[in-house]
Write a structure and sequence with these properties.
The complex is a heterodimer of chains A (275) and B (223). Chain A contains eight helices and ten strands. Chain A has a five-stranded antiparallel beta sheet. Chain A is α+β, with helices and mostly antiparallel strands and 275 residues long. In chain A, helix 5 packs antiparallel against helix 6. Chain B starts with 16 loop residues before the first strand and ends with a strand. Classes of the chains: A alpha+beta (275), B alpha+beta (223). The interface between A and B is small, with 7 and 5 residues. Chain B: Pfam families: Proteasome. Chain B: Its main location: cytoplasm.
Chain lengths: 275, 223
């Protein structure tokens, strides 16, 4: 009941010491389609679920390259995400122009967080309605950060945001201890598995998800659909009927993958999966 | 009372020569590697050539500090273009960008004499030549820098480019093959090094073709 009295303005506190507009903005992040990120010592993988308005339209771009060593996945108001990506790209370009070296990730996320904070303390602005998973590599190693509309940021080994992200988080919590020393390919597989958790029954195809990688000796890039489809097929996951090329025949013949099962054989049954 | 004059100049000339020749499916851009000031040599191994995009290379002689600043500007603008358009800039697009960037500083110019070379969208060689404030023209070949007065007449004789004012519009690119053009470049620089004191040491040749970008070097007179 009290919420309605104190939630009109971002500059109005509630009696309980909360800024409801900021919390509503974080709600917008939860409504967006899922995005996940995980990192090892040398690589970071970002993944997101592609949501299209209708069958006729293309899906929204949710993963952006910011620089060769930094990329970002967003969830929430994608327009806000696009604008913030443009800001991040600009900051990277200006920094490397001045210092002839890549912008350290930690500095970028602080700048981003400060920018978000401004919108929580101006009566004529509104908070950005987008959560950002910033993946970057710099001299101090591989980093994954989550930037929130509130202006807070946190560093993570692995994280998931957006709708049905709890399922992915559960999966990641089970597996994260292995991530630091995981190989690049295992990391990508884990990312795809985490995305599968958020789909909760929908068939996993490369047209439904987007994966991007950045790591030592590997500039940030989005994996093409064919590569992703091959990795999906290698898990023997049911449901790639629509695969446009030779991937269709590989379903049964691909080699079994023991590694994802190391948590427990029953682990796969925890998240509801339609087989 | 006479007008006060400055006792220093913001500019310096680091000398050197640049040449570019366009062919049917390649483009050769070359420059010497000597950097000088006054009658002294600062270094014998300075590259005046910069790759701006996948199929676009620029060579500049003049004041190398301004050249470096110009190259950085263009590189940053190219990054922005790539973010916005999801592709590399074509050579003609970069040519226009360079012209605009130079004219932007019309009243405190980049002391930089540029030749831009590369492949256009159809894979044909193209060369653009500039003055310090951005006036530019698409040509079949060009030379800039301290040796240009020695090099240009020789290229005119060898490459016989038809006038762009003639009708029907004729192709400015040379019918020579890549190897012949490179040979011509080497000859031209060897000659320029003989008489131009600012040209010499080493010749850097960059070739842009469908396979990508390749670099070659040749020794020149060190005196």
């Amino acid at each position: 009941m009290f919420r309605n009295q104190y939630d009109t303005d971002v500059t109005t506190w509630s009696p309980a010491g909360r800024l409801f507009q900021v919390e509503y903005a974080m709600e917008a992040v939860k409504q967006g389609s899922a995005a996940i990120g995980l990192r090892s010592k040398t690589h970071i993988v970002l993944g997101c679920v592609n949501k299209a308005n209708s069958e006729l339209s293309s899906h929204q771009k949710k993963i952006f390259k910011v620089d060769d060593h930094i990329g970002v996945a967003i969830a929430g108001l994608t327009a806000d995400g696009r604008v913030l990506s443009r800001y991040m790209r600009n900051e990277c370009i200006n920094y490397s122009f001045t210092y002839e070296s890549p912008l350290p990730v930690g500095r970028l996320v602080v700048q981003l967080a400060d920018k978000a904070q401004v919108c929580t303390q101006r009566s004529w602005k509104r908070p950005y309605g987008v959560g950002l998973l910033v993946a970057g590599l710099d001299e101090s190693g591989a980093h994954l950060y989550y930037n929130c509309p509130s202006g807070n940021y946190f560093e993570y080994q692995a994280f998931a945001i957006g709708s049905r992200s709890q399922a992915a988080k559960t999966y990641l919590e089970r597996k994260f201890e292995n991530f630091t020393d995981a190989s690049r390919d295992d990391l990508v597989k884990d990312a795809i598995m985490a995305i599968r958790e958020t789909l909760q029954g929908e068939t996993l195809k490369s047209s439904v998800c987007t994966i991007a990688v950045v790591g030592v000796g590997e500039p940030f890039h989005i994996l093409d659909q064919a590569t992703v489809q091959q990795m999906i097929d290698a898990f023997e996951i049911v449901g790639e009927q629509e695969a446009p090329d030779a991937a269709a025949g590989q379903e049964a013949s691909a080699e079994p993958e023991p590694e994802p099962e190391q948590g427990a054989a029953a682990g796969e049954g925890v998240a509801p999966m339609d087989i | 009372m006479t007008k006060q004059q400055a006792n220093w100049s913001p500019y310096d000339n680091n000398g050197g020569s640049c040449v570019a020749i366009a062919g049917a499916d390649y483009c050769v851009i070359a420059a010497d590697t000597r950097m000088s000031t006054g009658y002294n040599i600062l270094t014998r191994e300075y590259s005046k050539i910069c790759k701006l995009a996948d199929k676009c290379v620029m060579a500049s002689s003049g004041f190398q500090a301004d050249v470096k600043a110009l190259q950085k500007q263009l590189a940053a603008r190219h990054l922005i273009y790539q973010h916005q358009h999801n592709k590399q800039m074509s050579c003609p697009a970069m040519a226009q960008l360079l012209s605009n960037t130079l004219y932007y500083k019309r009243f405190f110019p980049y002391y930089s004499f540029n030749v831009l070379g590369g492949l256009d969208n159809e894979g044909k060689g193209c060369v653009f030549t500039y003055d310090a404030v951005g006036s530019y023209e698409k040509v079949g070949y060009s030379s800039q820098g301290s040796g240009s007065t020695l090099i240009t007449p020789f290229l005119d004789n060898q490459l016989k480019s038809p006038s762009p004012l003639l009708l029907p519009v004729q192709d400015a690119v040379t019918p020579l093959v890549e190897a012949e053009a490179i040979d011509l470049i080497k000859t031209v620089f060897a000659s320029a090094s003989e008489r131009d004191i600012y040209t010499g040491d080493k010749l850097e040749i960059v070739v842009v073709n469908a396979d990508g970008i390749r670099r070659e070097y040749m020794e020149l007179r060190k005196d």
